[in-house]
């Protein structure tokens, strides 16, 4: 009975071209089950490039040639062979060969190189696949709308983020990506394009309001803010930045200009009307009176007879 790891490949019976290379582990009964996965799960396959060619093979009444290329006792050696075969046959997605793999192997999705031309090709191929198979798109949408599936994904993400060093690694990757040449302009352009869509804007604002209005969110933000301000280094850095920012003539001029633009005659009249309406409220008057009584009683207990001093 075979054990360990194996590398396999799919060959198109119509033209004898290699269309996929993968790695798997023999089952407890010594079967290369992973090799048959893509064909058996064709209708729910996520790799749209591979799915499109397998569907054509099925429609022709044929079956792809699935063979084990080599066996290994160590996974790293299987990874190495997988990479070698992918380099040998080349990727369809970047025009170097016939394989429908989405990466260069060895690391799965992490090994992918997303050039602009490749992103465009992948996008176009996925759109075409969805157009050919609307039922798959609906199934995918329904799956992601399933509460159980959402809970499963949420749990998996939390487990991944709690792994040692994962948050630091992710933060560094985000910072490096945002600091890359042209990255900020690209992000800004994409964001502006999204916000021009009234439906998208309303959906995002509604979601944000619903989230920030919850007590759990407010407690979370409060805890995070207090935690940051408990750090002397962070507190000193932010305080210094605020002071330096306010001390320049340019910042003061900017603040004055913003205040003037904001407090127009119409705005002042509007705020005045709002404050008058609030101040004449019986409930507010009662609250203010009670607050003053409590304050005066407290000062009397402390031996103070005047609001301004002893």
SSE map:
Elements: E1 5-11, E2 18-25, H1 33-40, H2 48-59, E3 65-72, H3 75-89, H4 116-132, H5 134-145, H6 147-161, H7 166-179, H8 183-195, H9 198-212, H10 215-229, H11 232-247, H12 249-262, H13 265-279, H14 282-301
Structural key phrases:
GIY-YIG endonuclease; 3-stranded antiparallel beta sheet; elongated; 310 residues
How would you describe this protein?
Among the domains are: about 1-145, GIY-YIG endonuclease (3-Layer(aba) Sandwich), CATH 3.40.1440; about 145-180, no CATH class. The protein has a 3-stranded antiparallel β-sheet, with helices on both faces. The model has no long low-confidence stretch (mean pLDDT about 85). The N and C termini lie far apart (about 95 Å). Helix 2 (about 50-60) crosses helix 4. The longest helix has 20 residues, at about 280-300. The chain is mostly helical and about 300 residues long. It has helices spanning about 35-40, 50-60, 75-90, 115-130, 135-145, 145-160, 165-180, 185-195, 200-210, 215-230, 230-245, 250-260, 265-280, 280-300, and strands spanning about 5-10, 20-25, 65-70.
Which structural class matches the secondary elements? mainly alpha
What overall form do the CA principal axes indicate?
A: elongated
| Portion in strands | 5-15%
Give the total of beta strands.
Answer: 3
Number of helices: 14
Pick out the low-confidence regions.
none
Q: Give the SSE string.
A: EEHHEHHHHHHHHHHHH
Query: What's the architecture of the domain at 1-145, going by CATH?
Result: 3-Layer(aba) Sandwich
Rg, Å, rounded: 31 Å
- What is the CATH fold-level name of the domain at 1-145? GIY-YIG endonuclease
Distance between the termini: 94 Å
Largest sheet: 3 strands, antiparallel
Percent helix among the residues?
55-70%
- Order of strands in the sheet with most strands: 2-1-3
Can you identify the CATH superfamily of the domain at 1-145?
GIY-YIG endonuclease
Q: Would you tell me the overall average pLDDT?
A: 84
CATH class of the domain at 1-145, anyone? Alpha Beta
